């Protein structure tokens, strides 16, 4: 069972990353064909991650990240 403190930390991560997920610039690094745990109850798994300036810029399907 997940503790309340773990849920609070996960919420803070999501709040910090959410604005970055909207970014439209070119990524420095893209990881695809992966199994990425997102800590989002509605979308707990993703298959791609884009990184720009040492930060997560987007997380989603390979198609979403390629766009």
Key phrases:
67 residues; alpha+beta; 3-stranded antiparallel β-sheet; two-stranded antiparallel ribbon; 2 helices; 27% strand; globular
Structural features, described:
The protein has helices spanning 4-21, 62-66, and strands spanning 29-31, 36-37, 45-46, 48-52, 55-60. The strands form two sheets. The protein has a three-stranded antiparallel sheet. The model has no long low-confidence stretch (mean pLDDT 79). 34% of the residues lie in helices and 27% in strands.
Give the SSE layout.
Layout lengths: L3 H18 L7 E3 L4 E2 L7 E2 L1 E5 L2 E6 L1 H5 L1
Antiparallel strand pairs: 1-4, 2-3, 4-5
Q: Encode the helix/strand succession as letters.
A: HEEEEEH
Q: How are strands sequenced across the largest beta sheet?
A: 1-4-5
Determine the number of helices (DSSP H or I, runs of at least 4 residues).
Answer: 2
Distance between the termini: 37 Å
**How much of the polypeptide forms β-strand, as a percent range?**
25-35%
The secondary structure category is: alpha+beta
Quantity of strands, as a count: 5
Shape: globular
Uncertain parts? none
Report the helical percentage: 25-40%
What is the CA-based Rg, rounded?
A: 12 Å
Mean pLDDT comes to 79
Largest sheet: 3 strands, antiparallel
